[in-house]
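Hi support team,

I'm filing this because I wasn't sure whether my run with adenosine-5'-triphosphate finished correctly. The job status page said complete, but I'd like someone to confirm that the output block is well-formed before I use it downstream. Pasting the exact inputs I used:
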Amino acid sequence: MATVELRNLRKTYLHEEIIKGVSLAIAEREFVVFVGPSGCGKSTLLRMIAGLEDISAGDLLIDGQRVNDTEPARRGLAMVFQSYALYPHMNVYRNMEFSLRLAGMPEAERRQRIGDVARILQLEPYLDHRPGQLSGGQRQRVAIGRAIVRNPRVFLFDEPLSNLDAALRGQMRVELASLHRRLGATTIYVTHDQVEAMTMADRIVVLNKGVVEQIGTPLELYHRPGNLFVARFMGSPPMNLLPATISAPAPEGSVQVRTGTFSVSIPTQQAGLEAGAPATLGVRPEHIRIDPQGAVHGMVEVSERLGAITLLHVRLPDGQMIVVQTGGDNIDCADTPISMTFEEEHCHLFDAGGMALARSTEHPLLAGA
Amino acid sequence: MARTSTRLRHATITLLAWSIALWMFFPILWMFLTGFKSEPDAISTPPHFFFNPTLSSYQDVFARENYWHFAANSVVISLMATVVALLVSIPAAYAMAFLPGPRTRMTLLWMLSTRMLPSVGVLVPIYLLARATGLLDSRTGLVVIYMLTNLPITVWMLYTFFREVPVPILEAGRMDGATRWQEVTQVLLPLALPGIASTGLLSLILCWNETFWSLNLTSSVAAPLTTFIASFSSPEGLFFAKLSAASTLAVAPIMVFGWASQKQLVRGLTFGAVK
Amino acid sequence: MDKVAGHPPVMASPAGSAARSRGLQGFVLQSPAIMLLLAWSVVPLLMTLWYSVRNYNLVDPTQQGFAGISNYWYLLTDPDFMTSLENTAILVGGVLAISVGLGTLLAVLYNEEFAGRGIARILVISPFFIMPTVAALLWKNLMLHPIYGVYSAMMRAVGLTPVDWLSRYPLATLVMIVAWEWLPFAVLILLTAIQSLDTEQKEAARMDGAGMVAQFINITLPHLSRAITVVIMIETIFLLTIFAEISVTTAGGPGVASTNLAFLIYSRALLQFDVGGASAGGVVAIVVANIVAAFLLRAVARNLET
Ligand SMILES: Nc1ncnc2c1ncn2[C@@H]1O[C@H](COP(=O)(O)OP(=O)(O)OP(=O)(O)O)[C@@H](O)[C@H]1O
Ligand SMILES: [Mg+2]
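And here is everything the job wrote out:
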């Protein structure tokens, strides 16, 4: 298995810089997920690692070797494409055999290997089918099989599940995770689905316009977003963000913040906060409690009952909308006035530049991190 | 009410469509029939639809000209020109579709523009060049010229077909360790085979029917069927039956071929304008 | 660890240089085609240019030497030249109008369901496979011959006097013959284009209350625009250089009534053996073709966008 290191990678198309200096060290067996909005450069970065795009500047190292100028097939990588990119004129067996044949592997060994892989992926009944005769999930499996027969040092996935329906996607997610555990290959996985990112990743890299916004474990990104972009991007429904002003740097490492209609006191260790400075208050829907004595008041506009939980869309008196997550047995319905409390230790505060302010309390799951 | 109007519409469409189809095809049918008439039958007024079929015109045609010589020339020249054109244009179209540079589009348009140059404008130099190089009245000469005149069209057609091939499939080939040659021969060409076939078909038809260069650059040795039929045109034009028999012989191979491959041909003719 | 993971990794054989320059490869692959076409378009063009400023007559070797622009002067002041330009424009324009206009309507018609549609379609497109000489001979003799032609017989049958179409209306008749050859091509392409039209789009238009005509104008025609561009371009390429049909039917006559630029140059070169004059005509034809090409290619370039 292999390590992958990106050193200040850059990509320029004509005059436009698409990847603006990405640095990242991926450990052996690590499962790294690139997420980010559409067009942020995830695929481009992955294709640069694969060798399908030239690297304009910076170094790419696999196992410590600089491979910028190495051909794709000689980098020891395998890639699974979003469209699967199976060879439509070859049957499943031939699809998986192609790279082995090109590498000059003897027939018996090829047969053996493909047999092993087909067994793992439950593709044995379909070996002489053409891709056109397979279902989406089966094609997906063939694409993965084609990658793993080569036993690559690094797996690259570009949105491999986005063409599948929700149920199949969930199933394949689990299969991929368990496959990763069995094979233990270093994996780089591109997705825009944050559930995939959260559930599969050892580490997530959040990209925005060709720049890394934050790198961290899923829970780090969720509970300790470094900036407004990550805060908005991670979590569904997303974090509530309210414009606010610092009203008074209170003593004992906390700060008083006011929004249009209420004030909260948030623990922080950030020094040098000035009264009157603009800021953004962030709080996740599950960190707002319904509390008749609460200081925050609003009117329920829509109540979405998802079964286990209920999402209340609440309009605050100044017109801002927030989402509150409550239990599935919540009975508030539209046009009911409610009062709430923000759990202050879970609130996030971002300065005018969108950067998170240093926290003084830590999420229990991250305490050891 | 609605039923009758639908039925009326249907009847109108059927009638109209068939009348136009028959009108378009009638000259060809008439040519075919006339080829089996005796000369007096062929010029009878009013013309006869029913007559005693005879093969005498065909016998006369075969007696007068060596049909098989011309036909063989047509087949060999069209096939050779098409094969060479494909061999030259496949790499070019591949490069344009998959390794595009800033000048690719200009190159493609320039190629098309060379096709628009009127042959007659360069007839004199080409004639003199052919004479100087001994390619006058030679199969090779026509093959070269047909290949060159068709090249812009074959490059362009192949380019539009190649662009429909999903790039990730070729990239997967590259990731699997295919060299450029293997990528083209083992991945791209099998995928684009229908497109290549229709490109070849069109090229064959255009070569078969090319008249300007074949009339001006060949006389006997390399003369294809276009020249064969031209020899029936002027003084003996009034021998309708013989003329029809000869014409039928000249067009029948390519027409039967065209009918058989119609579906394949159509795909190519749209030049990527239809998805 | 798993069995599969135990296999040694597969890498490509170490052939090939590391950094492959895409630009260079692209150039190398294109170069045969480019070189050939370059030679094909430049060498004869230069020769034509050279001859066009020379005195050069194949049957009169005494005429020699530099002619300056006299060949051009002679050509451009020749009233036949203007006539031939006009005739070229009429031929191209007329055939394009018929094949695109009628072709669109026929494409719509043959897209409808009716008995024997497949056979009818094949009959309609058949003329496309006919070589120009045969088409011309067929129409000249079997169809339009003033005495023995089928059309003349039909006119007589309804009490009209047959007309010698090719000498009375040479250009119009030529347009008709050439249109018969090229209409199938237009139908073929436009029909394919119509078949690719989304039926949901049409149904949506029906729901919006569009009638047959409104549907045709608002949905079908815009959908066909790209295909129509292709038809116009390909046909123009061939129509600009119509030669065999003229040579077989009218030989450019009567007078020069049906002489187009291509045939004019041809008759100068091969009938009057005036290589200098023919070359000047060739240069003019190339200039004309380039002007037309510039317009057409702009339309095609738009087609290449997507
Ligand atoms: N060949 C190219 N030439 C010019 N620009 C390109 C090219 N390929 C990609 N880009 C640009 O690079 C940017 C990043 O593209 P990329 O495909 O990497 O985005 P992505 O993050 O994968 O988006 P998505 O989630 O939609 O797949 C986009 O703005 C795109 O327009
Ligand atoms: Mg992408």
